[in-house]
């Protein structure tokens, strides 16, 4: 829990989304990636940080691709990467016991109430002016494998980078609940969410040089269920972990997975609710 507390304190001065675009576009705000040609922004309140937000690292997992592993996106299209993408589908949870600077029970830890199945995006924060050879942190949020999103205002490293100028931070959206772990007998693959979390570092490895990062200096940082997923990937791909280091904040692969399914005792979550109504087993991530 201490590592998570440190991370939260680092991001304590988070700003609201969307960012305000700067009046000028200095060199370095246009970056070519496998997904397309990105145009980023600089928030005037943090003039030494470039933001590339809502970058699709995979094709939308919709319609015919809904219950399939992610497919990496290759495109030459122009992408305005100026706002964080929506969270993946979920029943948004509230907790009146958690402090909110805005009052009420909608806290900065929970994602904003913008959801879409077209949600496989990531966000890159990197120093301005552009540099090269920087270490990279890839962050997976927690949420019991049922909830979470990168548009939570807790997960905004802008102030951190403005102070340090020494690294790049990336946050990743991935499928959860029934969309990420369907446990449906007719499907060949049940761990879709984990495969999303595998594809994202692959995308970062292949593209981070364009943002000033060093693919040989990448660290995967997971919090809570994000830490469990990070450790799952560690065991699932021992010969090709992609990253050179892992930070497991508040969990690991040895944590009893059934204890991570849901803290929603009312069973209003989509996954748990469906399981209750149909008498099927609640989806549990299983590394195969």
Provide a short characterization of the protein structure.
The chain is 20% helix and 19% strand.
Please give a structural write-up.
This protein has 288 residues and is of the alpha/beta class. The protein is built from six helices and nine strands. The protein has helices spanning 2-10, 158-164, 177-180, 192-207, 225-236, 270-278; strands at 30-33, 36-39, 49-56, 78-80, 121-127, 134-140, 168-172, 213-223, 245-249. A six-stranded mixed β-sheet has the order 3-5-7-6-8-9. A three-stranded mixed β-sheet has the order 1-2-4, with no helix packed on it. The protein is globular and about 50 Å long. Residues 1-24 and 263-288 have low confidence and may be disordered.
List keywords for this structure.
single chain; 288 residues; alpha/beta; Rossmann fold; six-stranded mixed β-sheet; three-stranded mixed β-sheet; 9 strands; 20% helix; disordered N terminus; disordered C terminus
Classified in CATH, the superfamily is Alpha/Beta hydrolase fold, catalytic domain
Helix content: 10-25%
Proportion of residues in extended strands:
15-25%
Shape: globular
At the fold tier of CATH, the topology name is Rossmann fold
Secondary-structure-based class equals alpha/beta
SSE ordering: HEEEEEEHEHHEHEH
What are the segments in which pLDDT stays under 50 over at least 5 consecutive residues? 1-24, 263-288
Gyration radius (Cα, Å) is: 18 Å
Mean pLDDT: 81
Record field, number of beta strands: 9
Which architecture per CATH?
3-Layer(aba) Sandwich
Give the number of helices. Answer: 6
Strand order of the largest sheet: 3-5-7-6-8-9
> Main sheet, how many strands, which sense, barrel?
6 strands, mixed
N/C terminus separation: 28 Å
What is the count of structural domains?
1
CATH class: Alpha Beta
């Amino acid at each position: 829990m201490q590592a998570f507390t440190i991370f939260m304190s680092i991001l304590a001065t988070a700003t609201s989304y969307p960012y305000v675009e700067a009046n000028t576009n200095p060199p370095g705000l246009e970056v070519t990636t496998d997904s397309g040609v990105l145009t980023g922004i600089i928030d005037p309140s943090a003039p030494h940080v470039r933001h590339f937000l809502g970058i699709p690292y995979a094709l939308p997992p919709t319609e015919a691709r809904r219950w399939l592993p992610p497919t990496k996106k290759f495109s030459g299209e122009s992408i305005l990467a100026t706002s964080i993408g929506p969270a993946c589908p979920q029943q948004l949870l509230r907790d009146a016991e958690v402090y909110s600077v805005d009052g009420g029970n909608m806290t900065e830890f929970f994602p904003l109430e913008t959801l879409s199945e077209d949600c496989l995006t990531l966000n890159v924060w990197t120093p301005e002016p552009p540099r090269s050879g920087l270490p990279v942190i890839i962050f997976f949020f927690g949420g019991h494998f049922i909830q979470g999103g990168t548009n939570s205002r807790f997960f905004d490293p802008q102030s951190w980078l403005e102070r340090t100028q020494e690294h790049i931070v990336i946050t990743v959206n991935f499928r959860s609940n029934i969309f990420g772990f369907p446990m449906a007998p007719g499907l060949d693959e049940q761990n879709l969410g984990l495969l999303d979390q595998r594809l994202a570092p692959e995308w970062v490895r292949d593209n981070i040089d364009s943002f000033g990062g060093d693919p040989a200096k990448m660290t995967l940082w997971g919090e809570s269920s994000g830490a469990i997923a990070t450790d799952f990937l560690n065991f699932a791909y021992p010969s090709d972990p992609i990253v050179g280091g892992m930070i497991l904040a508040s969990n690991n692969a040895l944590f009893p997975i059934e204890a991570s399914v849901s803290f929603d005792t009312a069973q209003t979550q989509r996954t748990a609710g469906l399981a209750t109504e149909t008498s099927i087993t609640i989806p549990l991530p299983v590394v195969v």
